[in-house]
Write a structure and sequence with these properties.
Blueprint lengths: L12 H25 L9 H11 L4 H14 L2
Helix pairs in contact: 2-3
Amino acid sequence: MMEYGFMPFGWGFGGIFMIFFWGLLIWGFFALVRWLMNDSDRKEKSALDIAKERYAKGEIDAKEFENMKRNIIESSK
């Protein structure tokens, strides 16, 4: 009969490393899926989107927004 040391069922350093490895692999998979699903944060906002946000927040009034919108559209042509 073989002795496995103080760890039952032969769980030594290799068994602990195996659990750590698979846990890290599973965590990495879920982190990758989460990063890929969070696509909205990686998109760059356009100038018109920023102007719309500022108008919605009340930082600029309707006249300023229309001037910005006209300038953005003209400069993109």
